[in-house]
Amino acid sequence: MDVTNNEITLKNSLVGGTAKTAIKKPAKSYSDFINSHYVTKDDGKPITNTRMPNDQNKGGSYHIDENEYPDFLKLYAKEILVKNIHEHLTELQLESNGPILVDIDFHYDYSVTQKQYELCHKEEIIEHYLEVLKSMYQFDETTKFRIYVQEKDAVNRVEKKNITKDGIHIVIGISADKQTQSDLRRRIIELASESCSELPIINTWDDVFDNSITSRSTGWQLYGSRKPHHDVYKLTHIYEVTYDEEEDELKKTSIPVNNFDIINNLYELSARCITHPQFLFKSSYLNSRPPPPLATPQSARRSQSRRTHNGDSTLNAYILGITNQEELDNAHAEFIDTLLPQEYDIREANDYTMILPETYYGVGSFAKWIRVGWALRNISDKLLIVWIKFSAQAATWSFATDIQDLYARWQDFDLKNPNGLTKHSIMHWAKQDAADLYKKVRANSIDYYIDQTVKAITVDNISNDKSSRGCTDADIANVLYQMYKSDFVCVSIKNNIWYSLKNHLWIENDSGTTLRKAISTQLRDLYWSRAQAFMEQAANLNPPDEERSKRLQDVADKILKICERLGRANEKKNIMTESKDLFYDSNFMEKLDTNPYLLSFKNGVVDFKQKCFRKGYPEDYLSKCTNIDYIPIDEERDAETIAEIQDFMRKLFPIKEIHDYMWDHLASVLIGTSSVNQTFNMYIGEGKNGKSVLMELMTLCLGEYKGDVPLTLVTKDRAKVGGLAPELLALKGVRLAVMNEPSKNDQLNEGVMKQLTSGLDPIQARSPYMLQSVTFIPQFKLVVCSNEFMVIKSQDHGTWRRIRVVDFMSYFTENPVQNDPERPYQFVADPFLKEKFDRWKFVFNAMLVDIAFKTNGVVNDCARVMSSSNSYKNSFDYIGDFIRDKLVVDTTNGKVLKSEITTEFTLWYEETYGRDTRGRPSAKEVHAYMDKRFGKYEKKKAWLGIRINYDKFSVENSDADADENDDISTNDL
């Protein structure tokens, strides 16, 4: 951070000569060049750069052709960077390509005076980017690109806003489109919010990674330029990235900044650089990549907005010019009045927003207030005026500064994000926290849709046809949808599968029965009330008007006919048929139970990312539940239960390091990030050791988050994964998956086990009613409780790095024996232990939650568990045993052929393990093992430096070569 731009340039003489000769003499000076490219809107040329106004100039816009841009940057570097002149240029980003740009904005409390992030945080973020990029792109040995990191020397303390700001600019030299950058940003936010959670930021991680840069709606500060009265960003790190095919990893190498020729290579740091490499996407990423939004509807919306509001820019300029409450009220009223009939959803969003109580906009409401803004922006870009109107209710509101602040935030919020907050979110908040006002707004909004169903029989154009039905089944279905769109979803039209929202959980509702019942109750009551209103109006006309009274009564009669329809079984069936299309959400099952950081309890949700317990929301998309309440620990109230649980765990795991490991392991189960550890835990021990008792307690704590895995899932081949597998689909969202007791010779399918424990590889499965498979990432920790070990034929690292053997060494009996060498850990069995579990489950769960908050689900390995795991591995290392038994070191004449190894291994295996060949490694596997240990066979057509000791298992030659070389040892290998 202490290297200036001048120093970078001057030290470039080591590479490109002196600063004077680094650039060829241009035809124009920088000043002449930039001034000659000044443009106005009337010129009709696309703007490539802007200059921010300062005390000396008014700013401006510029157009620089693509073929001129490298030369322009050289002129700029020579004038601005070498001479350290203050300049304020930005670059408009390219629409379809250009580098990946990252703008990281940290906001701290104003009391912060120094940088809070360290080198490790920067390295962590860079590693996150490499990890995600590897999952998106196809890389090979020719891959090479650079990453440039820029920082300021000091933090920026903003007294006016009472905050301290700091930031990092990153340029990743890969040409990428907007959608790719958006996907990348979304995944990075998830990773960085965990790895850098200790940073004392006061803004959200969504705000930290500036979306306006990712979406390319905001210009990028040209390197060496700065905002007026601000420090400049300096190049502090350069990494060259290559791909290691053998390790399947992107490797970064640091390049000294002082050796970088900034003058001749400034183009690489430019937002408008088009020479960065492009890479093909992986099919796995393409399959998960959402389709881009259609251009035509967006254009139509923009066009409609211009017709309605005389241009978005005009509207925004008008909003930014508001200086008092009266002007704001007038602007808001005009906005509502000019909404078109088909924009009724926007009108409803306004109505529900404006009834939210002070807890959503007053002091201390930031978390709720910002979510309101996110939801409004995601509904429609037009709703900025509503957010301002809503926010202006705060006692601390200032027209002088706050409108500008809200506008800047608004530009960074997501627009039309299918996974973001919606109008349903606002409705839910209003329903929860302003129930009476919510009912009034809902009644008014539903009135609108009821009016649409009777529009053909209004007083002015009522038909004389008394048999007219008045409206169609589809019209009534639309009213039903407006009433219950937040509470019901149809997930299969063909099979009539419905879900309904109960509290904060989405529960399967048999054929939508509850909704069907509402047609003849709540919906019919609404129409009855409307009919009564028309009848009362007809009876109370003043002055009396017989003709108008008759029309009003006729309308009431038509509505009453609709009421009759709503009570008939066939009519309700038809309305439900039409409703399926309206309530249908093809992606609902994909969304359900996918957030690994949420754990649902009966009374709310534990959010492990935010480390809090909160209310559940419909957009959490939760269907599973622990089926118990979450009750935080009270050390005094729960002291006795805590002591009992701790005693239980100490007896269950008398070895301290295993005891500590299991607490962390069981706590990690609550968080669905199985990719953090990627382990397959085997609980091994003979009877009466507590395995089943522990699983019973975990079942009570986890409820629906605990699942049973059929053993065949991991012992058979992979064909079932991705096919018709309802038992696999049932594991979606499960946090603890327990396998049945395996038999002695059950063999593990290592490939399936890796997929189930990776936490990264998606799984496809479907139930019989589904036309398409559901794709999901497993969240569960895979566990097997067994007296016997499963057979694992593979010896590859990918398999055994996942295996964790947890020995259950205790023995619970009525008559424990002290100092028993066979069973050293014996304890008195408690016959009433399980009766305590109903009391324990609340406290045990809360204890696990507290641990998970601290560990974030990370489980550190311990020596005892790893030792047992390695012993397990070695028990199946037949080839290793063969090498130790039959091969000796002979560096002088040692030479072994494939045919010799194959023959001798077969004989040795039969003599050692018998003639059952089911677990015997193949000749190909033996040869591959030998290649790893003694070098490639093909190079010398033999393995050199070793020979077979034929004396072993040979009666005839038992006394030969007695004094020859010793058998091969582990060290020799």
TrEMBL record:
- Molecular function, one GO term: hydrolase activity, acting on acid anhydrides
Start and end residues of each SF3 helicase domain: 657-821
UniProt keywords, alphabetically: ATP-binding, Hydrolase, Nucleotide-binding
- Region annotation (Disordered) maps to 290-311
Q: Name the InterPro entries for this protein.
A: AEP_C962R, Helicase_put_C_phage/plasmid, Helicase_SF3_DNA-vir, ORF904-like_C, P-loop_NTPase, Phage/plasmid_primase_P4_C, PriCT_2
Question: Which SMART domains would you find in this protein's record?
Answer: D5_N
List, alphabetically, the PANTHER family matched. Answer: ATP BINDING PROTEIN-RELATED, SF3 HELICASE DOMAIN-CONTAINING PROTEIN
Q: What is this protein called?
A: SF3 helicase domain-containing protein
- The organism of origin for this protein: viral metagenome
